[in-house]
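Hi F.,

I've been meaning to write this up properly since the lab meeting, where we talked about keeping a consistent format for the predictions we share between groups. The idea is simple: the sequence comes first, exactly as it goes in, then the structure tokens exactly as they come out, then a line or two of notes. No screenshots and no reformatting. I'm using this chain as the first example so we have something concrete to point to.
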Amino acid sequence: MGVLRSIFSGIVAGAVSALSFALIHAIFISDIWFSLPILLAAGAICGFCLGWTYGLLFNAPSIHSWLTYNALYVGMFVLIGCMSVLVFKPVTTLAAVMASDGPPTYLFKQELPVIIVSTITMTAIIGKLYARTWVHIGAILLTCTVLVILLGLNVSAIGLIAIPRSSLYLILELAGLILSINTVFAAVFVGLEWKVFFSGVHHIRLPIGKR
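Output, unedited:
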């Protein structure tokens, strides 16, 4: 029941964070309300994965463990961006990317090495910290993969795009959007799980093999 509750809270929090993303983007960057159904679906999927794995990995839910767990995934995006800048050389310009009608799909194939290495690295780190079974490792790997595909592709393309100094603020905007999504997501989840986090009584879920 604890895992199901975490999944439900994750889905709701993910959808709310997607809505907040659309609002922030519309106010400060451009109107993307036409993409709201896709954003809500992506947010719900990411929330499902994060809520599911959190429910699996943590026997005694707490705000500290929840915020720490979320921070690790923010760190994953930082890792992806840093690796992209270090590994790749620019193959296109920011003006060309912004002038295209859709996402720069032609860059995605070139991003694969960074995406794969970053996903495996973060799976190993989070698994080392929290996993107790191979089921946990698989759940973490799936969560990292989903987050990278739905949220991290633009981050992994940074090293492939020549960004003039006058446009470096766009990197800050991207970082701010990621942080805002995660902040809203984590806060909404805490609100939904408030009684669980502060009840003082947690249902202990023993690792597989010890039940």
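Notes:
The two ends are 16 Å apart (CA to CA).
The beta strands are 92-93, 161-162.

If this format works for you, I'll send the rest the same way.

G.
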